[in-house]
């Protein structure tokens, strides 16, 4: 490559960086602003606030439980979508993505219409004296609906990329469809679905709109960290900033752990 | 040696099959142009694809019969399948790959599965690869490991889809020799999809030509090769037999 070509590619690279810079700045700026504006005393005040502890515990409890439910029910659903040629499967697959496009507040209203006292299923639950809205289970339901599509989408893509010959071989080796799912499909597509699970977890942890409308904002009952931040904004902006920073840190640590322990080193990179 | 027979009709998209095959004491080499439906025939025999009508019997076992509404699941047919890419699982090491089929069979403890898998690897001189990942193996090594897995299964029939096509010349010769020995020893039916007449010769296989969805010819290699000069011989067969005697 001669020097003229070098200069040409360098200047082209600079153009891309220049064009990308404004977007990069907007993406990084909120994080930097949080870091700069939250002093150590404010972080300490936020951490020692009992509301924060309650909210953090609730956020962890609900998001982990939601993640378990999403995984347990999402894997068979994604496997069906990936394997089926039926029109019904294609329509349902598109419908499952709906919560990604629709604003969370709309999902919250939808959940109220479905499970609220005057909702479609609400009357049934009411008959058994079991109301879901504004309870711990409402938080779970809101998180599941909002976060599940991220997991299902990734799992479907990962399953579709699997070598179908291996599935055939596994069957001829005497494995039932369920054994193939647990011993071949899930372990072989781990990198793909762990990515989706990570995204779903991040989405569940940060869920706000649907939770606020369907579960309310009751400290100790339905107040997750995002809702606690919202409440703190009305009392003390510094505490809200510190809480936001802690939520960011927590998300980063958990995402790192999830990827470290569940995503294998690429088999191709092995010595 | 077990006799087997398959007669079925199958249709999907442009592919229409009307197949009638029999086999006994010799492996059967299924030949034909690309897209003729050879692999689909294997998948139908395995039970992965279901024909619209017909039957498939292996020995005393009726594995498929549209008349009697019988269709045994692939996992219960005890038929080993060796696909083109060997079908080794990249998330398992060689030993676990070989023992994969035994795990589902009743009466085998974990240690017995390991012992039998190791025995099969030793039989093919590849026991030193037991802790390796299939991705780290050469094409020839992969083929031997896949064969070891087939051996541990003690299947009632073996189906091979172009088993040596991905190998270099030396590895091809070696794998053909191993296949020939093992098929002779196991004394079970085998169907082999191939484009190479050397596979047919080395395995002393019968030949069946799949053309336009039908078996246009089935017979012994020696008899077919003697008809090389026959003008009526199918052009594909003439090309397939090439310069080999």
Can you characterise this structure?
The complex is a heterodimer of chains A (271) and B (245). Chain A has 271 residues and is mainly α. Chain A contains 14 helices and no strands. In chain A, helix 11 runs antiparallel to helix 14. The two termini of chain A are 33 Å apart. Chain B has 245 residues and is of the alpha/beta class. Chain B has two domains: 1-78 and 157-245, P-loop containing nucleotide triphosphate hydrolases (Rossmann fold), CATH 3.40.50.300; 89-154, no CATH class. In chain B, the strands form two sheets. Chain B has a six-stranded mixed beta sheet with strand order 7-8-9-3-10-11, with helices on both faces. In chain B, helix 4 packs parallel to helix 5. The longest helix of chain B is centred in the last third of the chain and has 18 residues, at 169-186. The radius of gyration of chain B is 18 Å and the shape is globular. The interface between A and B is medium-sized, with 21 and 29 residues.
CATH architecture term of the largest domain in chain B? 3-Layer(aba) Sandwich
Largest interface: A-B, 21 and 29 residues
Major β-sheet annotation of chain A? none
How many whole angstroms does the radius of gyration of chain B measure?
A: 18 Å
The CATH first-level class of the largest domain in chain A comes to Mainly Alpha
Which key terms come to mind for this protein?
heterodimer, A: 271 residues, mainly alpha, 14 helices, 0% strand, B: 245 residues, Rossmann fold, five-stranded antiparallel β-sheet, 8 helices, globular
How is the topology of this model organized?
The complex is a heterodimer of chains A (271) and B (245).
Chain A (H helix, E strand, L loop, with lengths): L2 H35 L2 H9 L1 H34 L3 H10 L1 H4 L2 H12 L6 H6 L8 H25 L3 H9 L4 H12 L1 H16 L3 H7 L9 H11 L1 H26 L9
Helix pairs in contact in A: 1-14, 2-14, 3-8, 3-11, 3-13, 6-8, 6-12, 8-11, 8-12, 9-10, 11-14, 13-14
Chain B lengths: L3 E9 L2 E9 L4 E4 L6 H9 L6 E6 L2 E5 L4 E2 L7 E4 L11 H6 L10 H14 L15 H15 L3 E5 L7 H18 L3 E4 L3 H6 L3 E6 L2 E7 H6 L8 H7 L4
Parallel strand pairs in B: 3-9, 3-10, 7-8, 8-9
Antiparallel strand pairs in B: 1-2, 1-4, 4-5, 5-6, 10-11
Helix pairs in contact in B: 3-4, 4-5
